[in-house]
Design brief:
The protein contains 11 helices and 14 strands. It is of the alpha/beta class. Helix 5 links the parallel strand 7 and strand 8. Bound molecules: zinc ion.
Length: about 350
């Protein structure tokens, strides 16, 4: 058995409030524990979105009742809430800005709406951006102009990793994360029904995937972007983008270790040390996970805790299984069973 620290996932969507048929704080944090994660940072694009004191309370009250692993909740940047979210920063994971997406209350139509957030959000926390391709370049320019940390979510393209490398060489305060699906899948994968390939950023080309693997040292974190939608939705006329990922990430990475494409220190750095540092997360005492590095099995959605009922990695042969999770002194997961009650999870921003 290999012992690792409790893993941190800085990017999950738990769909509560608003779409608990897909996932909620209970099933989402159960999936996290089964995947070896003891801290998750939950994104704010729920219904309603989490973007002021009132909506933050809605999310945190649900989490307090239901979460089984530790967590923090992101705030979302809107067109006129820069002061409000800045004043709530100590209670949140960080600030999320959607620079490409155009929907609802988190819609930021032009760069004048980015400026107050970059000015006001406390610099001890990163601003996390969904910013693809040239929008990502704009976000890096903002990091330089405002001299503050910016964390780029789910990078997927060769042009992105190369630009982040260049920005880091210039000393710009930029960090980034990559998702398992952008490291293990390409856009021309066959065998998946079309709706089940839909994810944002889209799956990229082999050239992009190769560039990510060639620049592993530039990647600060592995994040799942766990974004569950039901199978019915994925196979419908208008499939929403997003993959579940909490329960498949570590097995995929351990398999890459067994194939000498990755090392255990890489996993610890990108799934524990770096996210802990970037998001200023507190130490979790008496917390660790155990993995059986030699366990060989097939990934199957039927064994997962996520409510969404599917995985893009169905049937993949992997080597490496989470066998036990200890969270703050209690056995929280063992051999396929969640052993802590709903509500055991703590808001890590309360613990400070
Ligand atoms: Zn996301």
């Amino acid at each position: 058995m290999l012992k690792l620290p409790g893993l941190i996932d800085p990017h999950v969507h738990f769909r509560e409030p608003g779409a608990t048929r897909k996932e909620d704080w209970d099933t989402g944090t159960s999936a996290a524990l089964a995947g070896g994660f003891t801290v998750v940072l939950a994104m704010p694009n729920t219904k309603p979105p989490i973007f002021d004191a009132q909506t933050l309370d809605i999310a945190l009250n649900a989490a307090k009742l239901k979460a089984r692993c530790d967590y923090a909740q992101y705030l979302g940047a809107g067109p006129d809430n820069a002061e409000i979210v800045a004043s709530l920063a100590d209670k949140a994971a960080a600030l999320k800005m959607y620079l490409d997406m155009t929907f609802g209350e988190l819609r930021l139509d032009d760069m004048t709406l980015w400026m107050p957030h970059f000015e006001k959000y406390p610099k001890e926390y990163p601003i996390v951006v969904h910013a693809e391709s040239r929008s990502m370049a704009a976000a890096i320019l903002f990091a330089a102009i405002y001299n503050r940390p910016v964390h780029i979510a789910h990078i997927s393209l060769k042009e992105e990793i190369l630009l982040i490398k260049a920005a880091k060489e210039k000393g710009i305060k930029v960090t980034c994360e990559v998702c398992p699906h952008h490291l293990f899948l390409t856009q021309d994968l066959s065998g998946l029904r079309s709706g089940r390939k839909e994810v944002r950023p889209r799956l990229a080309t082999q050239k992009d995937v190769d560039a990510l693997w060639e620049n592993l040292n530039i990647i600060d974190c592995f994040a799942t972007d766990h974004a569950p939608h039901t199978l019915e939705e994925k196979d419908s006329e208008n499939p929403p983008p997003g993959f579940p990922g909490l329960e498949t990430a570590l097995p995929l990475f351990l398999t890459a270790v067994s194939e000498s494409r990755l090392t255990i220190p890489d996993i610890i750095e990108k799934m524990y040390t770096n996210p802990k540092k970037i998001f200023h997360l507190p130490e979790q005492l008496e917390t660790s996970i155990e993995v059986d590095e030699d366990a060989k099995y097939k990934i199957t959605a039927a064994e997962q805790f996520t409510r969404c009922g599917w995985t893009p990695f169905e049937g993949w042969k992997v080597k490496g299984r989470v066998s036990r999770v200890v969270l703050r002194g209690r056995e929280a997961y063992r051999d396929g069973k969640i052993l802590v009650e709903a509500g055991y999870g703590r808001n890590i921003r309360d613990a400070l």
